[in-house]
Batch of 3 targets.
Target 1
Amino acid sequence: RAQHNMAEGGSCSVTSVPLCEDTAPTVAADSASGACACSDSGTQQLDKRKMPLPLPPHKRQAEEAQLQAAPTGSRGSPNDHETFSAFQQLTSVQRAIIRRFIGMLNTEEDSVVITNPLQQHGPIVYVTNAWQDMCGYSNERAIGQNPRLTQGEGSCPETIHSMGRALSKGHACRVRLINYRGYNNEPFWNCLSVQPILFNRKPVLFAATLKDYSYRLTRLVSLAPAQFCKAGDCLQYRVHLCDIGGARSLSQARQIDVTASHLDIEDLTEVEQAEVEQAGGGESDEESSSTGKQAPPQLLSKHVKRLGFGGLELEPEYLLDRLRHECAELGMPCQFQELEVGGTELMRMEVCSEASSSSGSENQSSADGDYGDYGGHSSLRAVLHVLPEDAEGTYAISLMRLVGDTFQFHAMYRKLRDRLSDIVSTPPLRPMKGK
């Protein structure tokens, strides 16, 4: 019934079976640290006891300051990357695309790395200053190297192999992986989106946007966060480079189509302009639209009266993990699924709240925002969804009562709202029209 209300009769496919943290079957995966396991949904879970804790903020800041002050760690001028041989070996088309791409970024805030799949080992050809600060490698140490230089003993091999398979097919993917900073080998949780950049319908570059989720994930003490690589059909839609408004759009996992009309030909030398024209110029916008360009995922309609939280610019997997953690802290058992509805990724979690058999005391405790004794019969079942609000990476959490007392359901909502206060700083869930 919840799926029918969410999709309004649309098609729905389950991409992973319901999981309960205590009962999910696992298969051991070979790892250098022996701390990685593969669940039946294809994600990787790490034993947090074997993962070193991040450095205290004051110590990390001191080491970052040393990195930036060191002669070999200075980040240099914005165009220093063009002096490296790995960049000079790029084709004129690749260089023109990178220059266009860089113009959309804030190099001090957007952590982005660009690699060249046309060269052996896919070397790094450009990194922003924010990437250098996050990963701890300067231009001199990063450009020309493979991105695996940030991997270590806690990085899950199965996740890395899955990402390699996706990129070999030219697929966009969304990844969560443990990486290591170059200046002190400190592990951190890296959430990245990888976008293939296509010219003449072939990948000529890969761009990845990185986000450090260490602070958020290490606080979820009731569960072990998973490492994973997702490259499903819902991520394989194309957008034109000219339709991307800025860095926020670039952070979404999808394929980016480039044509000659998107490039600043005037900024190229005569030789480079001739090479771009000889390359064929790519498809026109009309041709691309008629040769397999997929539409963006359909945005699902949300019920006007449904409780929830909107405007969350966070990774959907983190939002699901956060809900699981808070439910565990509140003593509410839950099961979750990852679904695809109308080409849109949707995360569904069903929560049960148990109360004592005394209805009078139950209603009173619910009105006060307390869940009472969990040793009795099941009195409330609710479903929570994590779903996109737009195509730019904004998500919402929607709550709906399936069975049970309305007062207790509202008490659950208030309890979750209070526990999510650090991320719920925007107005409540707003109605949104589906496309």
Target 2
Amino acid sequence: MGKETQEFKWVGKRPIRPDGVDKVTGRAKFGADMHLPGMLIGRVLRSPHAHARIRSIDTTKAVSLPGVKAVVTGSDFPPPPPPVWEAAGEVPVNFRDLARNVMARDKALYDGHAVAAVAATSAAIAEEAVDLIEVDYEVLPHVIDVKAAMKPDAPLLHDDLFTDGVSPKPDKPSNIAKRMEFVLGDIEAGFSKADVVIEREFTTKPVHQGYIEPHACVADSSEDGRLFIHCSSQGQFMVRQFCARVLDVEISKVTVVPAEIGGGFGGKTTVYIEPTAGLLSRRTGRPVKMVMSRTEVFRASGPTSGGATKIKIGATKDGTITAAQATLAYQAGAFPGSPIGPGCMCAFAPYNIGNVNVVGHDVVVNRPKVAAYRAPGAPISEFGVECVIDEIAEELSIDPIALREKNAARQGTKAYYGPTFGPIGFVDTLEAAKQHPHYSAPLKENQGRGVASGFWFNIGGDSTASVHINEDGTATVMEGNPDIGGSRASLAQMAAEVLGIDYDKIRITVADTSSIGYNFLTGGSRVTFASGKAVIEAANGAVSELCSRAAKLWEIDPDAVEWVDGEARPAGKNAGDFEPMPLSTIAGASGKTGGPISGHASLNVKGAGPGFGTHICDVEVDRETGRVSIVRYTAVQDVGRAIHPGYVEGQLQGGVAQGVGWALNEEYIYDKEGRLDNPGFLDYRVPVASDLPMIDTVLVEVPNPNHPYGVRGVGEVPIIPPMAAVANAISDALGVRLKDLPMSPPKVLASLSNGGGRAPS
């Protein structure tokens, strides 16, 4: 759908994925699959307390256990780096806090915080040694809830944390790490023009990314001080940088080899065990393997933030939104750095509103430090916004899609967080949703329909790629981003398109950090866009060289040669009368014309086009049990140009499934002592196949003009609308609005028993 698009040979097609055979046969190597001679097994001792001062750690018994080769605590690590924020992932990183999260120093700040680690000759010995470590804790008061943490009398996590972004600078420490604000127009004047003003408060819980593969790595330190790390992550260069900073070694001495990744979704954009494995390897002179258990993943790796939000929107009788205000508070976990920035940026971004005020707070609590999760921060703020917009539509008796379309951002709209939008497809998604048969299909008793929209700005960043032409006419593409969503296929398609050869003649290699130039991590839906541009430029460089070699063979000027459909051809009649020379022929003669043929590109890519989506959700609610069932779901999204439509559809369907889990089931549950009660998939309820219908997808294609093939990122937007779409559908079914996630059966029943809702039709 959308604007007419150019037809290509490979772009837009659905070829077989390059990694498919290896993964279905078990040949693919993941983080835990690496085994090296003499390898030791590492295990971690974790705090059982949510907040405790570490008085002392006695490792004597553990060290003396036969088979134990090393025991380390926080004192064995180099002093943490200065507390300076740096751009090093999807969200900025404070390396002092990263180091303290990897291994606790003076305090344990959450249940599961690492306090010591062991390397031994077997897993059994390592686990026994961990149990022998004696830690003297002074248990301190803790705080789990974000609102409670913001109170003046809340237990303080850090005595040296003063709220940034307020003037004058506070003279007392606080759990509020940062305040930020975005302002456009005059908010009070905007509300004064409104005929209807609705203000609501919402809460969301921290949820886990749900990746199947736990964090795993093998670290191997050499005698000359070099460190090799084999691990699964969303960025081998990120792992290299983070480990080098935490261990205080030169980046050039660290090589990270990427493994296959069994899911990430933003949760593998930081490090937890890699620096510890590196230190243990340096201490023992032997390779050390560390693999988190599922319980450790839940207790000690980052979920996304939970949040408390207040949304206020005003509109005139004809549906024009005159003012929009949001106050957001996000849990950062034990250290500052929630995705509050993107949450503020995205809250009202789908709409053209003249008066906007958004205030955000980054708040530390005694939970694991949060990590990114698809469109980090945006689902929390946009959940509240899309629910209030739906309520305004109901109040004004306006169709909810029509209300969104009336206020939709279009090309030329200036977003309140800064940029002016170029060609975007938000209106296109609304129109496609409105015209979809799903939107007008009849509903049964106790069923309801909800719609919601979502926005993500997408990113570019640093990317490096090389294209090497082999003597048999095939091509090898080297790039530096782990494949988490089909990037090997899409990059191979673009390379094949430029070179003019078949897709199956392209071999994609995800290179280690010593084999290719720097690449930013795989996150923010950047790889197909940014690394795609690098691959295209590298392939064009190879094409230029191929034309030069053909010119040598023909003994004509290189400018007189053009490249068409994988062949060198004379650029015109004046260039000479030569038969087209295919790539394979030129490659076969490369030894006689100048040697190997290749192209290379290192780019800082700008111009990532933002993404918009609109979802339709039908639910059925059991009034006796409170269970909400998804009976039909349609996701419509502006995808720029779908390089591999099958992968794009999968991204949309996966985002919907995760968003539905966030809406209905998923949450971290802590007991009164601040210990996690549900650290595993048996008690942490993610959606399974039987919970969802087949998710219908509609791909709207409004090409991004800043990419040769119109690419814009697609993986972030799909997780944003589901929470509000489900909430709006429940409201349509029952006449009751739920504002606290997850909307679990007990909450649904409570809302009905408290006199809410309408009688069954």
Target 3
Amino acid sequence: MSKKDMDRRKKFILELMGDPIYQPMRLREISSLLRLSKEEKRELYDVLDELCEEGKVSVDHKGRYEKVKGKWKKKKDDRYYDDRREEYGSEYGRKKKDKNKKDKNKKEQPEGIQAEGTFIGHPKGFGFVEIEGQDEDIFIPESDTGTAMHQDKVRIIIRDDKKEGKRQEGVVVKVLERGMPEIVGTYQLNRDFGFVISDNPKFSKDIFIPRKEAAGIKNGDKVIAVITDYGSGNKNPEGKIKENLGNIRTPGTDILAIVKSFGIPSEFPEKVMKQAQRVPDHVLDADRDGRLDLRHLQTVTIDGEDAKDLDDAISLTKEGDIYHLGVHIADVSNYVQYNSALDREALKRGTSVYLADRVVPMLPERLSNGICSLNQGEDRLALSCLMDINEKGKVVSHQIAETVINVNERMCYTDVKNILEDTDEEAKKRYEALIPMFFMMKELSGILRNSRHHRGSIDFDFPESKIILNAAGKAIDVKPYEANVATKIIEDFMLMANETVAQEYCTEEIPFVYRTHDNPDPEKVESLLTLLHNQGVKIQKAKEEITPKEIQQIIESIEGLPNEAMISRLVLRSMKQAKYTTECSGHFGLAAKYYCHFTSPIRRYPDLQIHRIIKDNLRGRLMREGRTEHYAEILDEVARQSSVCERRADEAERESDKLKKAEYMSYHLGEEFEGIISGVTGWGLYVELPNTVEGLVHVNTLRDDYYVFNQESYELCGEMTKKVYKLGDKVRVRVADADKMLKTVDFELVSDIRDDEEEN
């Protein structure tokens, strides 16, 4: 870069930082704001480097740049630039502090109540502490976080001086246990040293890596860094590279980084694989003994086209007014024994994780896709729930039995849907013998759905995302993946089996693992009702606590409205998260008194665990061999671990989708799309496109007026024009930016479709 170009760029940066609305930003944030290319980003670093040396720009310990105000004076204790140049210079080592020197920045310990909890970081440096049994988190200002990092167990002092209308504040006084000893992120080479920038935005501090600890690591590599020194208030943590995951451009590296960052085991230990190899690949004669032989039943599996782990099959007949529904579930417990290496690894994983380009299975594929999968034309061991259901959708009798089945056809959702909707003559011809059963399934599915609806079951019908990747792992399309008649059939039958099994074992008071969903918090419900009222939705609660039926009425009252999906999401957010427990406390969302997860033992550990309980009960071993006490002892931990793993999997799946959606939109910069406002905040509008991609229209880009956020009505209102943007409004946006690293999409508002329609 020439001196003239350098001077011109320095002037521009100083003008940018001199703008009143400018807030201190990191290098990558400035690059994103200016939409710089990779080469321009490197040039930006040189520009900022010179400005720092000249004393015109300073850098704080978080790496955020700002213009120096007044006369510049070097302050070695709090300047990020000096930390890098002087503390981590050619010697790479951290200079030791004078132990006798008093820390001038040390604050007196505030007065208040002591408490312990988990620190949840925020990209801006502050955080929150979650305290078990306490609904509201404690806010920790940036200046009071100490050395606490995301997921650390900490001791805090909750301040006495709570201000009205504000969240309770606290101060971290001690880190009890480090929650993230390893960080997954991107290695950034900076001359004589490097940094790892965490992929998790809640981990706000970059990890300093001495050159000797990063041998062979290239700029832009995805790595796992082990933290060796957690730093102090004005010093970044220090670490070393444990594993190089590969260059970010290598196919699959981006998703692998997500897997590693959530601590999801991606490879099975050798002992587990050896045990899996010893499992037979066919049903042994000895395993058939004592089982009910159901191979004569017309039985099908119905799954997605690319599914390989088929753990549920269906049979259905009708006599008079009674439907005989068989839900046949793979008997995984026959091959995965309690406390074996396979079992311990399955509990550790808790669930299979379904990411954009891969599945991380709970069990090795030899089992999940082989002997445990209900493959067409092969004898398989199953645990069957055989239900007699009347025309009102009530189970009048049932039997749970160990069985042998043989699936007649491996069906996919698309073929069944097309047969039932009379749109595929080829499929109708191919599966002619099964067509009467499919129509009977549709009939029974409708009855069961109506029955659940009558009691108040809440049906959130959000379209899921289907991300299409090419051979190189790049996202080439994003589509909504909506439920159809075939997916609803399977859903309705699985729900019925899960309820039936849960009711039997709750009634018999046998130790068990249930799927429970608590009632919403009254405060959240009141906030929701206020918001709905402001959105024109009038709902009155009959009692103090809202019922599932009343939630259902809300969902039905907004059906067909432009803001339907948005309000549905707000309703969903007001509800608690379902979890696994040993108490049969009911499922609010399903309006069910009894519920468990019985139907997916290949991919969920709770299902596998309750299969063992059921089989021990069927064989009379619960009382005879003292198995009841055994289950009472272990099930609380099974439920807790399963809930933790489920949340981890959900978060990883969301991050995977966000990453690939950002990648897809990065190929469409400058293009225009129609969308609906899905969220309104003080910093802008979230707009969702028909393909389920969501992006932000930042309030600073709405240049026709100064917009103010109305928290009660969730609206942005223009002060002069009185123009209002609210949930459900149709808008046209242009793709301004899509950052795969940050997993964000930025839009610019092109037009308000309402205005366009009025003009036409």
